[in-house]
Structure to design on (508 residues):
């Protein structure tokens, strides 16, 4: 066993006639006993295969996790992707007006949905007294790419990339309300108190960047607010706090205290942090099982390193003019989202593991929540996101990063194929069916998995629950969702609960 630091220091500076140890024999046994216990624990964990998400652990791995919660961890098997960019279509995009072409809606247009499905209940949506007839899409669909995918006219740029995308047309969730549906899409549960996907990914794999947060979140910068549920959507819950998302403010300084106080020199700040670290580590010596304490110590050091690295990472003005134009920077319709997509690319190429960008704000016309005027609502938000996300795919591909970066496009649920009555018809919430797509990161491009029914009311063939969606994300990152567990309240908790299956048909 390595000699205690205090012992080595006393040996190098000792005076004749003085004891080698600055503490009693009882204190020595107490400290050494803890070390022997740790060695025994390592052996037990190795024997049972319970360490490092089911993998055999070494003393070095156990030590690295204890000293740095964000230390890189090996995947369970070779990963298809090493990082994720999730474009969250906040508010619930209408699948039948974007990617899930339903020519039958032309035939059924204006007719009561009960003629199509007698089991329909007015409580399916959220506004049960504004139920109109089935409504055809206001958008024209055309075949795109070699795969011939039918795409709505509002996605001229993204339509160029359908051969890189894998579509899921049979997703479903358990809630027709935004907050619980957002929680479920992000955490696997339709209620607060559980870690989000990004936190589980950080827990399972650690961070490749020592100078930037491993998990970054960006929200709507046009004054339309945060998504419902706010920071709980990117929280770590019962996992150590080191794994939660770092939210970049859409306006002003993106992170608190990113600049060193003007009155403080670099040396003074370093001395201050060294003192705090020394005190925290001494406090930690008697609390080795408290992961939160290790996370807090690491957070101080990460914050210090970020003061140098973060301003460079988010400074998109360093990009060549042709790259800025590719994303749509300077176009007032999409400039805000273009900047976030370009920032996401700069972050992932610097080792950030997980980035989530929210399109749209709090509710209704401030997001994709098209209760009123589905044509105007979706046209507006498609213009804001189509070119930037298309450019993100192009840019990652030309830099050789797309194959190792998984891009996800998904909201919290879909929308009903019927009209929500009003001056300009919209569509109500639909938990029974949604569409999402993956691109890059080991995905089989140009493919479609699952089907909704004839009018897009319910997932009908190869239905995909949120648990399956999450299991597939972890699989592409080299993680077995059954083995990424965390002991909490006497239970081995995991992102996918007691369910979940990998959608192997969309994996290359």
């Amino acid at each position: 066993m390595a000699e205690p630091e205090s012992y080595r220091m006393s040996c190098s500076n000792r005076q004749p006639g003085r004891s080698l140890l600055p503490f009693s024999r009882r204190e020595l046994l107490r400290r050494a006993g803890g070390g022997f216990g740790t060695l025994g624990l390592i052996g037990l964990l190795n024997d049972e295969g319970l360490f490092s998400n089911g993998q055999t652990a070494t003393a070095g791995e156990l030590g690295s996790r204890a000293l740095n919660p964000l230390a890189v961890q090996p995947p369970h098997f070779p990963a298809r992707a090493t990082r994720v960019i999730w474009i969250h279509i906040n508010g619930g995009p209408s699948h039948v007006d974007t990617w899930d072409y339903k020519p039958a809606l032309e035939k059924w247009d204006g007719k009561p949905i009960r003629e199509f499905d007698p089991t329909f209940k007015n409580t399916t949506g959220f506004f049960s007294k504004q139920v109109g007839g089935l409504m055809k899409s206001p958008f024209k669909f055309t075949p795109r790419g070699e795969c011939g995918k039918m795409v709505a006219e509002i996605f001229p740029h993204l339509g160029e990339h359908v051969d890189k995308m894998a579509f899921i047309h049979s997703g479903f969730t358990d809630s027709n309300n935004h907050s619980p549906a957002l929680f479920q899409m992000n955490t696997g549960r339709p209620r607060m108190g559980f870690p989000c996907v990004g936190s589980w990914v950080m827990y399972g794999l650690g961070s490749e960047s020592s100078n930037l947060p491993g998990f970054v979140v960006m929200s709507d910068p046009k004054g339309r607010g945060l998504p419902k549920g706010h920071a709980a959507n990117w929280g770590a819950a019962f996992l150590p706090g080191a794994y939660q998302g770092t939210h970049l403010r859409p306006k002003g300084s993106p992170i608190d205290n990113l600049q060193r106080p003007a009155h403080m020199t670099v040396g003074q700040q370093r001395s201050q942090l060294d003192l705090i670290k020394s005190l925290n580590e001494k406090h930690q010596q008697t609390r080795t099982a408290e992961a939160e304490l290790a996370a807090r110590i690491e957070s101080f050091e990460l914050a210090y390193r970020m003061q140098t690295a973060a301003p460079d990472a988010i400074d998109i003005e360093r990009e060549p003019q042709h790259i800025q134009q590719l994303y749509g920077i300077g176009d007032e319709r999409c400039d805000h989202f273009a900047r976030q997509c370009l920032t996401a690319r700069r972050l992932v190429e610097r080792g950030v593991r997980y980035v989530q960008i929210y399109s749209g704000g709090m509710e209704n016309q401030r997001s994709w929540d098209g209760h009123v005027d589905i044509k105007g609502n979706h046209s507006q938000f498609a213009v804001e996101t189509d070119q930037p996300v298309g450019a993100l795919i192009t840019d990652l591909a030309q830099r050789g990063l797309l194959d190792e970066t998984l891009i996800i496009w998904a909201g919290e649920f879909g929308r009903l194929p019927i009209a929500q009555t009003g001056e300009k018809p919209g569509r109500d919430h639909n938990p029974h069916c949604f569409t999402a797509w993956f691109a890059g990161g080991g995905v089989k491009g140009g493919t479609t998995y699952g089907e909704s029914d004839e009018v897009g009311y319910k997932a009908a063939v190869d239905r995909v629950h949120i648990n399956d969606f999450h299991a597939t994300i972890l699989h592409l990152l080299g993680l077995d969702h059954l083995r990424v567990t965390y002991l909490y309240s006497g239970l081995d908790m995991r992102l996918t609960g007691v369910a979940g299956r990998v959608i192997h048909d969309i994996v290359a």
